[in-house]
Amino acid sequence: MTFNATFIGFGEAGRAFAWPGARAFDRKTDMLAERGAMLAAYADTGVHGEEDAATALSEAEVVLCLVTADQAVVAAGAYAPMLRPGTLWLDMNSVAPASKAEAATVIEAAGGRYADVAVMAPVLPQRRNVPLLVSGPHAADAAEALQALGFAHVSIAGDAIGQASAIKMIRSVMVKGLEALSVECALAAAQAGVLDAVTASLDASWKPQGWAERFDYNLDRMMAHGLRRAAEMEEVAATLADLGVDPVMTRGTIQRQRDIGTLRISPPDGLTAKLAALETPQFKRTA
Questions:
Q1: Which of 16, 17, 147, 178 has the most CB atoms at less than 10 Å from its CB?
Q2: How many whole angstroms separate alpha carbon 70 and alpha carbon 62?
Q3: 165 CB contacts (<8 Å, ≥6 apart)?
Q4: Looking at residues 133-157, what average pLDDT do you find?
Q5: How many contiguous H segments (helices) and E segments (strands) does the chain have?
């Protein structure tokens, strides 16, 4: 099975996924400073770069929307009226579930079929081998279309719009958070002249664990010793500040350790029970 496919947005992800014969439109073709580079990108990937969105979408059966995050809902609103009835709109942007739901409402109202697609790893070097999660009422059709277009690792996350993006967004708390923490740690270690010793110590003490086990263990320690650990982290923050490193991530750690320690909860057995014990107003966003 083959599909007439169009890329809306042709940045790094679009170029990584592209194949000869697909159509593409990027609004940068209307910007004098960007036009030359965009035309070159079309030529390099073999796509048919169009001068306007209406032409790019005129025969599309599948649309791969890969714009910047702040333009995901805007793009859905701008281009929904140009879609043929039944066109699959694959929203592959990294945005919150609420944004996906907003875009879906617009696409579905115009007669399109919307699917929430989460790209679960960097697009380079994997390109169409990158793992994808798909959710929404049209998830099965979207997964079939993606596989027909050459995407090798497509999984269905559920039948509700927002499920795929929720997995990606929440996972990023850990992935991006660890990135930021590691930079803060490495900067301080390098400034203190102890980088090799710190990395060796981490290598020696970091046990392999599944994430559920790690979550459970970490919560156990914070419930039992959060106040003491917060006090220790105050000294860590002072150490980093003395080294000229702004302890922005460490300040967040202090707050979270103190908040959990203040509850003075005897750690219950099991991750689910521990998380339930944190169902208090201070751990929820307030209006």
A1: 17
A2: 22
A3: 94, 95, 96, 97, 99, 100, 116, 118, 135
A4: 98
A5: 11, 8
